[in-house]
Amino acid sequence: MGRITEDLIRRNAEHNDCVIFSLEELSLHQQEIERLEHIDKWCRDLKILYLQNNLIGKIENVSKLKKLEYLNLALNNIEKIENLEGCEGLAKLDLTVNFIGELSSVKTLQHNIHLRELFLMGNPCADFDGYRQFVVATLQQLKWLDGKEIERSERIQALQNFPVVEQQIREQEKAYCLRRAKDKEEAQRKLQEEEKEGQEERSHSGFDGHVYMDTSSTLPSSEDSRDHGRAPEIQERECPKKKSDGSQEDLEFWNKPSLFTPESRLETLRHVEKQRRDQEKLSEKKKKVKAPRRLIAEDGRALNVNEPKLDFSLKDDEKRHQIVLDLAVYRYMDTSLIDVDVQPTYVRVMVKGKPFQLVLPAEVKPDSSSAARSQTTGHLVICMPKVGEVITGCGQTSKHVKSPRVSTDSSREQTEKRGKQVERLEVDPNKRSFPDVANIIQEKKHVPRRVRAEPKIAPNEEDPGFEDNPEVPPLI
What is the spatial distance between Cα 56 and Cα 73, in angstroms, rounded to a whole number? Predict the structure, then answer.
């Protein structure tokens, strides 16, 4: 059963930034509230209040809501109209489908001079002869009754026939009150019988609900122990019988005729709550502790696991020599709920405690890997450089570096030896010969054949046709 609490009101006041003292509209429908309380102290400025489909049995603690204009109490257990005189601004009142049998209680609404609309359909009083005429004549400020406009001629006729109609209403109220008193006695007797049956069941099973065995009984024999080993199988066969019995009882309850009274509504609610508790107990018994998800096989191999059931893509970026994992995590999920672990042969991502693990096609460098959320899609992008490759910036080519085929121990010894030795320049000519400077010549530049000039033949002085011209300078 629900109660009106400060936390409940704040949770339903999100449109007012959870501030309740200045709240003007409040909706508390379908909360199984049994009593109307605290609202007149915490929410003095309320103008609209929704309380339909609850278990409220009495109108109370609303007289201080001076600004209240609309009150909805449909589908509750109200039997009398009362305590609404202080709601000075009340203009609309909805009491559809309640248990109002005292129609004369509508006279208390005469003080609500601003009341324009009233709903009483679905109540026992709506079946009385002269019901509408009585209400129209009693509440002359009303403009609408049960969604139907009140005409001036209808009000005049109701006022003319009011003495006769009032007498009829009082007689019908008296007969209804007698029937209602019998219904209450019957409901009280039935409730006492149910409580007595429950006490008897608890006494048979023990004061704490457990069945105790006689300690003086002999120990079971070997055959009994073998039968005891088959007990779970017998229990499993008996479970469907119990379940069928429960379903039969449930079917009988819903097929059993019942009166339309507040007690029947409460009985139905108790039955539904009992079914829910039984279902929760049954589910707790059936619930088994799940074994932790295996991420590593017995032989040490990493397994592919996708427990959060996320879409992903894995591609080999040869241009940057890295492996890129694009994991479609939830777009609006907080990054603090994601944990990334990159290993040389696999990558593991914990999403809200659920593991996603993928074996990589090549060995990667965990220390050089990076993970980031995409600003457009919210996906998790993990970049993992491959082993044996140097990663450069975008647009630059990468250089392959051959990894040495030497064990780690031998390489460690070599580094230690190099650290102990003192490096010196080699100047001994016995070890290193100096270069021959005389033999260093400049290479001839290659000239294309078509551009190369024909060599000029210098004339020889011994040539008989040679004439020395003194004006010509000598050739160098």
Answer: 8
pTM of the shown model: 0.51
End-to-end CA distance of the chain: 124
**pLDDT digits 0-9 by tens, 69-82:** 999 999 999 999 99
Contact 306, 327 (CB under 8 A): no
Condensed to tens digits (0 to 9), the pLDDT of residues 403-457 reads 334 344 555 555 565 555 555 555 555 555 555 555 556 555 555 555 555 555 5
CB-CB contact of 138 with 163 (8 Å): no
CB atoms within 10 A of CB 409: 8
The one-letter amino acid at 325: L
Structure tokens at 374: 């995409």
Within 10 Å of residue 110's Cβ, how many Cβ atoms? 13
Q: Which amino acid type is present at position 471?
A: E
Tokens of 67: 């600004």
Cα gap 248→250, rounded to integer Å: 5
**Residue labelled with tokens 């006695």:** 185
Contacts of 391 (CB under 8 A, 6+ apart): 320, 321, 322, 368, 385, 398
